[in-house]
Structures are given as structure tokens and as C-alpha cells.
Design brief:
The protein has four helices and five strands, in the order βββαααβαβ. It has 143 residues and is an alpha/beta fold. The chain has one domain. The protein has a five-stranded parallel beta sheet, with helices on one face. Helix 2 crosses helix 4. The longest helix is centred in the middle third of the chain and has 16 residues.
């Protein structure tokens, strides 16, 4: 099992079962079809607001873990098993690009919880990150 962001180009055509774990589906073209969106693994809107501020990450993490504990390991396993499609690995998706400095996301909390509660190894899928365009140098008059 894997985690990643919706915009990771390595997902398309790689034989994964893409599953969202967000409140809503992306409004941009993906290049692949989502199998489903598991809302029980997504933070609530109130939790997303709590992520801001000085102690936001700690409060968010606690609330997210409580949400997953309320879901419970048995129901979590059932939902994930329902997503299985042969040998293809499930990739749990959200929006954050963790290749960018200082970024963090609820999918890291979900991955740790699945490991602790179900013994599932969940790895972050290799991601080249968003390509940031560098400003082009100003061309001189004679170049």
C-alpha cells in the first residue's frame, strides 16, 4: 500500500488502485480514474481549520488519530479490502506535495495508524514533485 498526492505523475499507467482520502475529489485532470474516495480516512472541515496556527499540527494529529480510532481497525480493513483489485497496490491520495519543504499531511498520520493498528506497511510513493518554473533571465539587446 502507498500514499501520495493526486498530482503525482507516477500514478497514471502504473497499475495502482487510486483511492482518495479527502473531503472532495480534485477539480483538475488526473490522468487516471479514481476507484473511490474513502471519507472515513479524510479529515473533517473543522479539523482542516485547526491545522493552522502555532499548535495546529499537534491538535490536528490528535483529532485525526481520534477519528481513525473511532473508525476502528476492523472497519478500516474492510474498506481497504473492498478497494483491492487483484495484485495492484492501493495508493491513498490527497493534495499535499510532500516534496516541498515544510509540507506535512494527514496521509502520513493515516499511514502510521494503519501500521500500528493493522501491521500494514504504507510507503510514500516516489514523487518528482511539482515542477517549479525558474524565471528566465532577461535577454540582453545583443544576445
Amino acid at each position: 500500500m502507498w500514499t501520495s498526492r493526486y498530482g503525482n505523475p507516477k500514478i497514471a499507467g502504473a497499475g495502482f488502485v487510486p483511492v482518495g482520502i479527502t473531503r472532495g475529489a480534485p477539480r483538475f485532470a488526473l490522468g487516471y480514474e479514481l476507484r473511490a474516495n474513502l471519507y472515513d480516512f479524510a479529515p473533517t472541515y473543522a479539523m482542516m481549520k485547526m491545522a493552522d496556527g502555532e499548535h495546529g499540527r499537534a491538535a490536528f494529529t490528535q483529532a485525526m488519530r481520534e477519528r481513525l480510532d473511532a473508525l476502528g481497525p476492523l472497519r478500516a480493513r474492510e474498506q481497504l479490502e473492498a478497494m483491492q483489485d487483484g495484485e495492484a497496490g492501493i495508493v491513498l491520495l490527497c493534495y499535499e506535495d510532500l516534496t516541498q519543504p515544510g509540507q506535512w499531511c494527514h496521509r502520513q498520520i493515516v499511514a502510521a495508524w494503519l501500521d500500528e493498528q493493522l501491521g500494514l506497511t504504507v510507503q510514500e510513493l516516489e514523487d518528482p514533485g511539482q515542477v517549479k518554473k525558474k524565471p528566465s533571465p532577461q535577454a540582453g539587446l545583443f544576445t
